[in-house]
Specification:
By secondary structure, this protein is mostly helical. It has 5 helices and no strands.
Length: 184
């Protein structure tokens, strides 16, 4: 949970940092609307399971792997508007992959509240991926996120997904889960 908390913070932080440089609307909307709710949802789970989350300043993370990823993505994203949108694709693919891994772990542990929350976050990440893909295509990058190579080309991702919770707007609010166990 600490890892996913930092990863959701990374998404918000990197998008806002790149928005301040390029004023790309997708970056601000996703950061201030969706990623804020994602952070809150993971934080609620962390509190429920007694996992401490850090409240460090933007761009600083307690998980070293997340810190390294932020530094790498920031260095790429500040080079150009195209790079900033490509970073969006990269963040969302990383997030989806990590969420899927943690969903599998939570399923094995019977932590249905974590499974439900992370499934909802994953649906939001699909939407974010397609928003960045559209942004690249509007910029003239005909392959969108696929221009980054096979690792970031996911035509199989569903489009226009809805979250499973009670949030405001876009159906991407986070539900309160249904039970749980001692999963950390």
């Amino acid at each position: 949970l600490e890892y996913m908390y930092d990863e959701e913070r990374l998404a918000k932080d990197i998008y806002l940092a790149l928005y301040s440089k390029y004023r790309i609307n997708q970056l601000e909307r996703i950061a201030t609307n969706s990623e804020t709710r994602h952070i809150d949802a993971v934080n609620r789970l962390a509190q429920r399971y007694g996992v401490t989350t850090s409240s460090q300043r933007a761009g600083v993370y307690s998980v070293s792997k997340i810190q390294d990823l932020y530094n790498q993505l920031y260095s790429k994203g500040v080079r150009s508007q195209r790079d900033a949108l490509e970073v969006g694709c990269m963040v969302e693919v990383t997030d989806i992959n990590d969420l899927q891994e943690h969903i599998s772990t939570a399923q094995r542990a019977g932590a249905n509240d974590i499974v439900d929350t992370f499934e909802s976050l994953k649906r939001g990440s699909y939407n974010h991926y397609w928003a960045f893909d559209r942004g690249l295509k509007q910029m003239g990058v005909s392959d969108g996120c696929c221009s980054l190579g096979r690792e970031y080309c996911h035509l199989e991702y569903p489009q226009n997904e809805r979250g499973g919770g009670r949030g405001q707007g876009g159906g991407m609010g986070m539900g309160h889960g249904r039970g749980g166990g001692g999963w950390r």
